[in-house]
Amino acid sequence: MTAKRLDGKALADTLRTALAARVAARTAAGRTPPGLAVVLVGDNPASRVYVRNKQKACELAGIRSWLHERPADVPQRALLDLIAGLNADPQVHGILVQLPLPPHIDEKAVIDAIDPTVDVDTFHPENVGLLAAGHPRFYPCTPHGCVQLLRHNGIDTAGKEVVIVGRSNIVGKPLALMLMQKKTVANPAGGDATVTVAHTRTADLAAVCRRADILVAAVGVPKLVTADMVKPGAVVIDVGMNTVDGKLCGDVDAGVWAVAGAMTPVPGGVGPMTIAMLLENTVIACEQLDG
Ligand code: NAP
Question: Is the Cβ atom of 172 under 6 angstroms away from ligand 1?
Fold first, then answer.
């Protein structure tokens, strides 16, 4: 068996084209174009690449973006002041602080400082709470990208056993929340799945993974998930973005292509979808704030 390729790049291109049309219609009607402020602290090369890709995608969709770079030793107070200024700027509909931040900065304090109505990453506790309660203001970008990849490929999650390896606030935890939620008109990304979240303390990870109809790897360990851990025919979503010998690779070993029924590639899977969902949240924030 060779797994069907779940092409995140192609889907993201389609979604971004639709968003560009939505933005163009808005600006043609004389309304403010959506605007995203990006804050980049320090000189992490991977963060720089992510930020560049996000800004390029904004430009193609007609979304304005501004990059606010600060040195790695920026005082926390200065960063909080910057965010307060962006919160008050009517041209800014989304604020993204690229993580990770240097160790002297309290990441939670920075996230808490972002106005929840422009928190397009969906990291602010108010937005996490709304998501958990089933009344999301925004869907978090990477989990939403995974859900959209499943949906657009006709993969129903209702009643399925989903195993997510990784319990981070950015990926594993919010994805679990989304997939376990009851699907309703108000919460169309609800998944109605039976969800298990695995992590470093999970006993017999391989056996837990083999239960999955849909297996998500969001770990940050290259090739952690091997063919013997996957139920034949399962859908495998590889969120991992690791660099090995200068090349990007996921958390799933290439041998899994021979066992899975469908799988996302790395690159070209979840990564481009994350960016498309960020743009969508920025447009939604703009529509919510400016009508
Ligand atoms: P993270 O915050 O480091 O969390 C990793 C999670 O994996 C933790 O819950 C950890 O368990 C678990 N884990 C680590 N080693 C494990 C092992 N051997 N067995 C079982 N569980 C293990 O990472 P993250 O931010 O969620 O990111 C995960 C991966 O996704 C990274 O490669 C990252 O670059 C990638 N990513 C990609 C995108 C995208 O757009 N494609 C977006 C975000 C992240 P504990 O909690 O027990 O420590």
Answer: yes
